[in-house]
Specification:
This protein is α/β, with parallel strands linked by helices. It contains seven helices and five strands, in the order E-H-E-H-E-H-E-E-H-H-H-H. It has a five-stranded mixed beta sheet with strand order 2-1-3-4-5, with helices on both faces.
Length: about 190
């Protein structure tokens, strides 16, 4: 008999109760024993974090949820969750989508999702790289703005000549130790 963990995520408690009743019914039809019921009513998802920590402990064999959207805020999050389950030889059963990763069709569907997610991430990376290259080509300076100007550089040189340590100069002028070291090295 498979041990099931039920997970629901809603904004109202009545919705969670309805989901849990439907999930318990689905488990009974499948012949699974309900080990634990988890639900989140808030965006911080503490129960979901607890679920993630309990996966390596193998206290259940399958996660049952009403909807795939409850399991993550992005395709990447959902795929990571499914891969974590697969790593620990656990299944996922989604009632609304009628998907069971224990079946060949369900496993194929999530393999397809995983491939699409990887493709999407690659496209995003390529667009970001192209945009950065275009910005640099147009003369845009990337990175964090600096508060180091000629006056600060001159102050670093003067204080260093007076025997101040690099750390003390950095603290006094409110600049980083690395920045101070670079200015000193250039003198």
């Amino acid at each position: 008999m498979r041990r099931a963990l039920l997970y629901a995520r809603r904004s109202i408690e009545d919705g969670v109760k309805q989901d849990l009743v439907l999930m318990i019914d689905a488990c009974q039809r499948q012949g699974w024993q309900v080990e634990k019921e988890c639900f989140d009513l808030t965006p911080c998802r503490l129960s979901f974090q607890s679920l993630l920590r309990s996966i390596p402990l193998h206290r259940f064999d399958i996660v049952v949820s009403m909807n795939i959207q409850y399991l993550g805020d992005s395709v990447k999050d959902i795929i990571s969750f499914i891969n974590l389950l697969k790593t620990h030889n656990m299944g996922l059963y989604l009632i609304d989508e009628a998907v069971n990763t224990d079946s060949p069709a369900g496993d194929m569907l999530f393999s397809l999702f995983s491939s699409l997610s990887q493709y999407e991430q690659g496209q995003i990376r390529a667009k970001i790289s192209d945009g950065l290259r275009r910005a640099v080509g147009n003369g845009k300076r990337l990175g964090r703005p600096t508060n180091v100007n000629d006056s600060v550089r001159a102050s670093v040189r003067v204080l260093r000549q007076e025997g101040w340590s690099i750390h003390k100069i950095a603290k006094e002028l409110h600049i980083g130790v690395g920045t101070t070291s670079k200015i000193v090295a250039l003198t």
